[in-house]
Design goal:
The complex is a heterotrimer of chains A (455), B (274) and C (310).
Chain A (H helix, E strand, L loop, with lengths): L16 H19 L12 E8 L2 H8 L1 H7 L3 E8 L1 H13 L7 E5 L2 H8 L6 H6 L10 H6 L1 E2 L2 E2 L2 E6 L1 E6 H6 L10 H11 L5 E4 L10 H10 L16 H17 L9 H9 L3 E7 L8 H5 L1 E5 L12 E6 L7 H11 L2 H11 L16 H7 L2 H11 L23 H17 L4 H17 L3
Parallel strand pairs in A: 1-2, 1-3, 8-9
Antiparallel strand pairs in A: 3-11, 4-5, 6-11, 7-9, 7-10
Chain B lengths: L7 H28 L3 H4 L13 H8 L3 H30 L6 H10 L5 H14 L6 H24 L4 H9 L4 H12 L1 H17 L2 H6 L7 H6 L9 H26 L5 H4 L1
Chain C lengths: L15 H12 L3 H22 L1 E2 L9 E2 L3 H7 L2 H33 L5 H13 L2 H12 L6 H6 L9 H4 L1 H26 L3 H9 L4 H28 L4 H6 L11 H11 L3 H25 L11
Helix pairs in contact in C: 2-14, 4-9, 4-11, 5-9, 9-11, 10-11, 13-14
Chain lengths: 455, 274, 310
């Protein structure tokens, strides 16, 4: 072994100088950040800072762009909006509100959470605040949405985005096969049309298959509802083994298999939007807001029909994103000021003039649908949207009475997990790894356990 | 090697190597390409392979307030990596070169701390952080990331330290070097590639960590992954924007990788030591 | 450690107090890391065990009550847990085995004479750099999607155009994406190990007439084995916890085909908000992993043995 010198003048430094400087600088920054504590860095003494936990949604993206307008008219309130995808924000907000951590002073929740949390006392009753604001006009809110957000006759959240479901179809592709679509089609008519139009290059229809209680189950539930099915009877007995469920699920899966898009098991809203925009599918049953994302041929040649029905009519779903605040919040006034501004009639005007009339947030106020510029820009689907939402009834979504509320979901706390698990089983059926009966059997078992807890 | 003639083996292995690297790199390349497309192009059927690049989506991504996210990520990643080195290097040294009794048990203990899946302890940890007023504080993330990476750091550094021939230490002790001198002057330069590899891995893990970040921060201390994920929209097309945001978010780590590269070049240590 | 009886070592005084002081000196460098880890991991773990003895649903205030071993007994009959454990094992072994082999191959390539080594290395780390969530989404939607993904489009001439990879072969897809992510990690570690090799030994072997493969098998491989094992061990720790890819690619399905332990925990803890149940699953996960790791480390891994310094 050769001798090894202890120190060699030729040896390069282990860490090069520039790297070292950068690292040292960032270390100082770290210490500085730690010492400053981090939380509540507001700065100005008089300003209140509110943190809004929001879902990532085009209407919310527009709201973020218009915050400077809010700040200029309300200089004493600083707004930080944190956006996350739906399941993330739901989890964060739930955790925050349930443990009263105070991370969010205002948050977006959906029609699923509002009744549940209002009942638990987690949400601030907004009626007193609304009463003080003469310009809010709660009667202007579209009836279906207003009912969904009301608990004990009071509003507990204010909507900034609403949707129902409708059928979108390419008039040209259907006409080429001699198919016309009525305004209020039945599912049988839709299936027949899909089969006729289906070819190797263009599929008949795009339906969601992506597992998730808010993904695949949303359209599927409306099919079940209109076929006469329901999740639980009035005694909370699970009904997934009923003939209506069997027929509905079989219908849905078969439609996907014979005339649906490839990769249906992973198709959510975005995938179907892509497929429809690219002209790879001729029809699409999904949210009413979808039409605002159409480009090219899809934009110019699309027709819009109400959600298809079978036994029960008006089968469109109901969903709204709303702004709400925790009952234990310390910044209620500031939070309400912002929420009020963001969901007011004036805000709709602001969006229309500054960002374009097609971008006005749909599905919340009836007055929006009377604005001539909006009607001109939003096109043919505005009326379908308005009517679908107005007729969606969360309290009576099904043919037979039910002990729960919710059109495309069951408004109980266990539904997130139950819905996810059940939709996974259905995804297996779509993938061809399970039969309808096997899946329904498993789903029935899961639902029965949940139903027991509510008897 | 004779000057001027390139051996065939070098060419062959270069081709093979570049092929493999291309396969691994391609999804990242595709992501970069997606970020230069418009949204309809990014998700067209058939896929758009030839297109006129546009920076519109990058502009849209950059118009959001991204610097705070990136600064927070930098603080959390670099801070925790430095802390891992500061705590881990002496510990690895003790376990490799001057072993304590029960070294095996200590080593096992370190990795056993990684056995608990994060979702199981998250709510208890969250409640603890809430009560300690550590929510939305970047320092909390530094602590958490150090905890996650320390076992990794100790094991990695120990393995590199085991490579050092013991004669060096004898020579140092004969010369009267203290523990500190030993560590700083001899050990660190010798395992510089190992330190670089360890630091890079710790940096990458901390930079890309999402779940603890999203649970423990809201607006002030939010990190780059949260910024990135915020582009995944439930309604509307977003692939080009997501690709642009992901590209931006990976640039700092790419730079760190390039810097660490220099330490991984052979000849820096073994060559100089002779 | 220089033994007193060893060759040419420093003479050590034998007084007991000095020996004890020397022992403490040896432990001292270890203490900061050790104390830090104990504080920040054992307290959460203790809390997890504590909560596992209670039944508590975050969405049902007032549901916090002591339930003893209820959460655990429920797990015995729970098929979801068995499926999750099985999937975790399959996923971990597949990913580690494949990525170690690939990582070794690439590291060897990068350690030999090739053009543009530096650039190759930087590009090779790229999969590891990308945020797992973004990477998985790019894979699922822009590369693998049968309708507008690139790979089905490229493979159409071979008749594989409309294969729905993510739904028909979920585990294969998840393993493939994870191998893509972790091979750079293995490569980094193994490469660092290869770099610390003494080139004189290889020179000597070449002079003695050994060809590349022989010297690789007989000299390089044994020397780099500790690093291979290190990569496998550390990689396993992280691959067992795979969550982001599964969340984005398959959401644990179809059915429960790709639900591993962390994902099952996520569903229970953050969809069902069943904190007590989730804590119990976590404790069971720790017990199972400890058993497997103990057996594995003592039998397989040479790096775990503490050799006396020569």
């Amino acid at each position: 072994m050769r001798d090894r010198k202890l120190r060699s003048p030729n040896r390069q430094r282990a860490i090069s100088r520039p790297t070292f400087t950068v690292v040292l600088g960032l270390l100082i920054a770290l210490v500085g950040a730690a010492c400053s504590g981090g939380a509540g860095g507001g700065g100005g003494g008089a300003a209140t800072t509110i943190t809004v936990g929001a879902v990532d949604n085009p209407s919310m993206a527009d709201l973020k762009k218009l915050i400077p307008d809010f700040q200029s008219s309300h200089p004493s309130i600083k707004v930080n909006i944190v956006t996350l995808p739906e399941d993330q924000i739901r989890q964060q907000v739930t955790q925050d509100v349930a443990t009263q951590s105070g991370r969010f002073d205002l948050f977006t929740i959906g029609t699923y959470e509002v009744p549940l949390w209002a009942k638990l006392g987690w949400l601030q009753d907004l009626a007193p605040y609304i009463a003080k604001d003469s310009s809010y006009a709660p009667d202007d809110l579209i009836p279906g949405i207003r009912t969904a957000l009301t608990y004990n006759n009071d509003l507990y959240a204010v909507p900034f985005y609403g949707e129902s479901s409708m059928l979108m179809y390419r008039k040209d592709l259907l006409a080429a096969k001699g198919v016309t679509m009525p305004d209020h089609p039945t599912w049988d008519q839709v299936a027949a049309a899909a089969q006729k139009v289906n070819s190797s290059s263009v599929n008949g229809i795009c339906l969601r298959g992506l597992p998730g209680w808010g993904e695949q189950l949303a359209p599927l539930d409306t099919v079940v509802n209109t076929f006469g099915g329901r999740w639980f009877d009035t005694s909370w007995n699970a009904q997934l083994n009923s003939p209506a469920w069997h027929d509905a699920l079989t219908f849905y899966v078969n439609l996907l298999k014979t005339a649906g898009e490839p990769g249906a098991g992973n198709a959510g809203f975005t995938e179907c939007l892509n497929a429809y925009n690219s002209g790879k599918v001729a029809m699409w049953y999904d949210a009413t807001v979808a039409a605002s994302f159409f480009t090219g041929d899809a934009a110019t040649n699309s027709g819009y029909a109400y959600a298809p029905t079978k036994i029960k009519d008006w089968s469109g779903w109901l969903w709204a994103w709303t702004l709400a605040m925790g009952s234990a919040s310390t910044k209620k006034d500031a939070a309400w000021t912002f929420a009020d501004w963001a969901t007011s009639k004036a805000y709709a005007q602001l969006v229309g003039t500054k960002l374009g009339w097609a971008r006005v947030s749909p599905g919340t106020r009836t007055s929006t649908y009377s604005i001539p510029e909006y009607k001109a820009a939003a096109g043919a689907f505005a009326q379908v949207t308005l009517d679908s939402i107005a007729h969606a009834d969360v309290a009576h979504p099904t043919v037979d009475p039910v002990p729960y509320i919710g059109v495309q979901y069951v408004d109980i706390t266990e539904f997130q997990q139950l819905g996810d698990q059940v939709s996974q089983e259905f995804a297996k059926v779509i993938a061809g790894n399970e039969t309808v009966d096997q899946a329904l059997q498993k789903a029935q078992a899961l639902a029965t356990t949940v139903g027991q807890a509510h008897k | 090697m004779v000057g001027g003639r390139i051996p065939v083996s070098k060419v062959v292995w270069s081709v093979v190597g570049w092929l493999v690297v291309f396969i691994f790199f391609f999804p990242v390349l595709w992501m970069w390409l997606e970020s230069l497309k418009t949204e309809p192009q990014a998700a067209s059927s058939p896929p758009t392979i030839f297109f006129a690049p546009t920076l519109a989506e990058f502009q849209e991504v950059l118009s959001g307030d991204f610097p705070p996210f990136f600064i927070n990520s930098a603080v959390a990643s670099i801070g925790s990596t430095l802390l891992v080195l500061i705590l881990g290097l002496p510990a690895a040294y003790a376990l490799a070169i001057r072993p304590v009794k029960r070294t095996q048990d200590v080593l096992f203990f370190f990795i056993s701390t990684r056995f608990l899946p994060f979702a199981a302890s998250l709510v208890p940890l969250y409640l603890l952080a809430r009560d300690l007023h550590l929510l939305d504080n970047i320092f909390a993330l530094v602590l958490i990331y150090t905890t996650i990476n320390l076992p990794l750091g100790v094991w990695l550094l120990r393995s590199f330290l085991l490579e050092i021939p013991p004669e060096l230490f004898e020579a140092a002790r004969v010369d009267g070097a203290s523990f500190g001198t030993e560590l700083w002057r001899i050990v660190v330069p010798l395992i510089a590639p190992g330190i670089a590899a360890t630091s890079l891995i710790c940096l990458i893990f901390s930079w890309n960590e999402f779940f603890y970040a999203v649970n423990f921060t809201s607006s002030v201390a939010a990190t780059a992954p949260i910024f990135l994920v915020g582009f995944i929209s439930g309604r509307g097309l977003f692939y080009a924007k997501l690709a642009a945001a992901a590209t931006l978010a990976s640039l700092p780590v790419l730079m760190a990788g390039w810097i660490a590269q220099k330490q991984l070049i052979r000849g820096l240590t073994m060559g100089a030591v002779k | 450690m220089i033994s007193v009886a060893g060759s040419g070592g420093v003479r050590e005084p034998t007084a007991a107090s000095v020996a004890r002081r020397a022992a403490w000196f040896r432990r001292l460098p270890l203490l900061p890391a050790f104390v830090y880890v104990i504080l920040l991991t054992q307290i959460p773990f203790a809390l997890t065990i504590y909560y596992s003895l209670f039944s508590w649903n975050l969405l049902k205030p007032g549901s916090f009550r002591f339930s003893g071993a209820d959460n655990y007994t429920r797990l015995v009959t729970d098929e979801s847990l068995r499926t999750a454990v099985f999937n975790t094992v399959v996923l971990t072994i597949s990913v580690i085995a494949i990525s170690v082999v690939l990582g070794l191959a690439v590291a060897s390539l990068l350690n030999s004479e090739v053009f543009g080594k530096g650039l190759m290395r930087t590009l090779m780390i790229a999969p590891f750099l990308i945020m797992p969530t973004a990477g998985a989404l790019i894979w699922k939607d822009t590369l693998l999607n049968p309708l507008f993904g690139l790979l089905p489009y490229v493979f159409t001439p071979f008749g594989l155009g409309r294969v729905d990879w993510v739904n028909k072969y979920p585990m294969v897809t998840v393993v493939a994406v994870e191998v893509w992510r972790w091979t750079p990690f293995m490569m980094l570690i193994i490469l660092a190990g290869l770099q610390s090799q003494n080139p004189e030994v290889l020179e000597a072997a070449r002079v003695d007439g050994a060809n590349a493969f022989q010297s690789f098998r007989r000299i390089t491989l044994p020397l780099v084995r500790p690093f291979i094992e290190l990569g496998a061990l550390l990689g396993s720790l992280f691959v067992v916890q795979t969550f982001d890819s599964i969340f984005m690619l398959t959401y644990g399905g179809p059915g429960e085909d790709t639900t591993n332990l962390p994902f099952l925990l996520y569903i229970v803890a953050f969809q069902g908000f069943n904190i007590g149940q989730a804590s119990a699953i976590g404790v069971v996960a720790v017990i199972l992993t400890t058993i497997v790791a103990t057996i594995g480390l003592r039998t397989m891994f040479s790096i775990f043995q503490v050799e006396p310094r020569r």
